[in-house]
Amino acid sequence: MAQEHKLEIFRGLVKFKSNTQKIWGVLIFLTIVTVIEVVLGIFKPESLMGYVLGMKALNWIFIILTIVKAYYITWDFMHMRDEAKGLRRAVVWTTIFLILYLVFILLQEGGYVFRVYDQGYITRDF
Amino acid sequence: MSTAVVNTGTEGKTWGGGNEPLKASYGKMMMWFFIVSDALTFSGFLAAYGFSRFKFIDAWPIADEVFTHFPFFHGVDAPMYYVAFMTFVLIMSSVTMVLAVDAGHHLNKSKVTIYMFLTIIGGIIFVGSQAWEWNTFIKGDYGAVQTKGGNILQFVDAEGHRVALKDFVVAGHNDRAKHESKNGLWFVNEGTLPTYTVQEVLHGLESHENVLVRTQKLTAEGEKTVLTRAESLKQIKDNGKLVVEGANLHVNEYGSPLFADFFFFITGFHGFHVFSGVVLNIIIFFNVVLGTYERRKSYEMVEKVGLYWHFVDLVWVFVFTFFYLV
């Protein structure tokens, strides 16, 4: 029961001949992304230390690269690319929506508590 | 007697029953939904970590300065290399897993066996590495002084390099012995006592002109604030309360105790997932070797356990980013 796999990544930019070949291709891509992350993490280029939307540009790059990696792990290693549209949406959209909601609420609250400590009458400096 | 059967008019359509509208077996779908709920559990932990970090955004430990060790390279400053290695091991074992699934689709028993075996080895290396990380983290390397307010004071030399307590503090004679249940209250425990007292640290600091105190506070450049000589002495004398070596759930020489708590909890929970993944993989491995799936003419079990294994890898990608990079 040789299952059918979609064998192209990057919206058809890279096409593979077999599923095995695609797996190695994705591994190479994930390794490159990880190496970029580690190199940036060690050298921390000065030019990326500016703030974009309340966070360092470097941190945005890390988070975006992580999501890119997560996408390829889910789509190609877990074969989400080959699943029915209904299953894919039920799993991915539900998770993404709930996580974004949770993260937003907790980070917002954390920032608020920080400002209470920082500008309020509570001191921690002793 | 046509009342017994209700005609809905959906017979033969996608959702009319007797179909697999999502084109996935029951087991595989349930694995996906388990993964969704587990993903939410992990994001709950990571979001809680984010909450605590935002709460102490101006005083959070810098991961680069915490995880600087590599096995067999003692004293070499190697930030992140070891975690990068661990990440790579886990991605690699994901690859062997997906190759096993692929070989399963071709009903190639010997290949599935080899790839499952390699996956298990990768998982064991990862769990072992994590144990080593924990060990290094718990032992600590420089030591610090905790203040009355629960802040951590670390020591640096004039160039800003970290100085370990043992390099400038001399341990004096101490009458205070560790309480043991065999010669005291049998129902009371006490952890290991610190090597030095705050008084001894103060003496050490007084006699070493070039040692300064570094606080948790981050400067605008994202580095820790170093106090002047006079302030250093004053801080230790007035506020020093406890000498901290290494990290546990109560104290943490690297900074906020919450950092250590979340480190233990999140990487521990993830490590437990990897461990259970290895156990599941071993069970499936033996089933493969025994030919169970060969007789069944379907290696779908390998696929299901593979989904779980990839999920563990997926979680690590996020843990790696939020604990070590950001």
From TrEMBL, chain A:
Its main location: membrane. It is a multi-pass membrane protein. The chain crosses the membrane at residues 23-43, 58-78, 90-107. Keywords: Cell membrane, Membrane, Transmembrane, Transmembrane helix. It is found in: Cell membrane. The keyword S-adenosyl-L-methionine does not apply. It comes from the Bacteria. The keyword Ribonucleoprotein does not apply. GO terms for cellular component: plasma membrane. This is Cytochrome C oxidase subunit IV. The lineage of its organism: Bacteria, Pseudomonadati, Bacteroidota, Flavobacteriia, Flavobacteriales.
UniProtKB/TrEMBL annotation, chain B:
The chain crosses the membrane at residues 31-51, 80-100, 112-132, 262-293, 305-325. It is a multi-pass membrane protein. The keyword Membrane applies. GO terms for molecular function: cytochrome-c oxidase activity. Keywords: Cell membrane, Membrane, Transmembrane, Transmembrane helix. Signal peptide: none annotated. GO terms for biological process: aerobic electron transport chain. PROSITE patterns: COX3. It is found in: Cell membrane. One of its GO terms (cellular component) is plasma membrane. It comes from the Bacteria. Residues 1-326 form the Heme-copper oxidase subunit III family profile domain. InterPro entries: Cyt_c/ubiquinol_Oxase_su3 (IPR024791), Cyt_c_oxidase-like_su3 (IPR000298), Cyt_c_oxidase_su3-like_sf (IPR035973), Cyt_c_oxidase_su3_a-hlx (IPR013833). SUPFAM superfamilies: Cytochrome c oxidase subunit III-like. Belongs to the cytochrome c oxidase subunit 3 family. This is Cytochrome oxidase subunit III.
